[in-house]
From TrEMBL:
Keywords from the named record: Ligase, Membrane, Transmembrane, Transmembrane helix
Keyword Lipid biosynthesis found: no
Protein name per UniProt: O-antigen ligase family protein
Keyword Transmembrane helix included in the entry's annotation: yes
Subcellular location(s) of the protein: Membrane
Organism for this UniProt entry: Clavibacter michiganensis
Length: 214
């Protein structure tokens, strides 16, 4: 049922694109984003491996950003897509590293949301609503990054770094949770036998009792 609904929805969007965007209050070219993306891709192809160098928000007085994205007299200072912006500035190498960072952080956020917290290996706690926060924030950031480049700058970049650190430290702490079996696994140090209990060596003869004076 869900798959059929998804296919039907995709068909409506594909055949009624103009009406769908009009309903959402957007133009069919996503407010000029298609034109900006085309310009960015054309420029990125000139230095596809390492890019043009990191600059953050575009400086329109610096080559090659002069006149790169101008629409209706407005100069845009970003690619309106975080991944295209990364590709333009630091190339395919930077894009792969950035994508890996986003994907791994999102996966850890997912596991943090569905894993029940543990304070001991033999005791599972109830689900926590707060554990959904990283996943919800990551979903919002990833969706926004498809039409905006704000994920790379200011508070959004700081937020994804905080989520990455928090989810990673949470997984490490979960792996180090102690349990009752840990003490049993520890090797017990053998006690030293007293000297009187040591058996005689087979090379030694039998002990001869001392003579008792009459």
């Amino acid at each position: 049922g869900v798959a059929v609904a998804a296919v039907a929805g995709a068909g409506v969007v594909a055949t009624r694109t103009a009406e769908v965007f009009e309903l959402l209050g957007r133009s069919p070219d996503l407010t000029g984003r298609f034109q900006i993306w085309e310009s960015v891709l054309g420029l990125a192809q000139q230095h596809p491996v390492v890019g043009w160098g990191w600059i953050g928000y575009w400086a329109p007085w610096v080559h090659p950003f002069q006149g790169l994205a101008v629409r209706s007299g407005v100069t845009y200072l970003q690619a309106h897509d975080a991944y295209l912006d990364v590709l333009l500035q630091v190339g395919a190498i930077g894009l792969l590293a950035f994508a890996a960072f986003v994907v791994t952080t999102y996966v850890r956020s997912w596991w943090a949301a569905i894993d029940r917290p543990q304070h001991r290996r033999d005791r599972v706690e109830p689900y926590s609503t707060l554990a959904l926060a990283p996943l919800l924030l990551m979903t919002a950031l990833v969706v926004q990054s498809l039409a905006e480049s704000r994920l790379l700058y200011e508070g959004n970049w700081l937020l994804i770094v905080v989520i990455a650190i928090a989810t990673k430290s949470g997984m490490v702490a979960r792996e180090d949770v102690p349990g009752p079996d840990d003490a049993r696994r520890r090797a017990v140090r053998p006690e030293t036998a007293p000297a009187s209990a040591v058996a005689p060596s087979p090379h030694e003869g039998p002990s001869i009792p001392a003579a008792v004076p009459s």
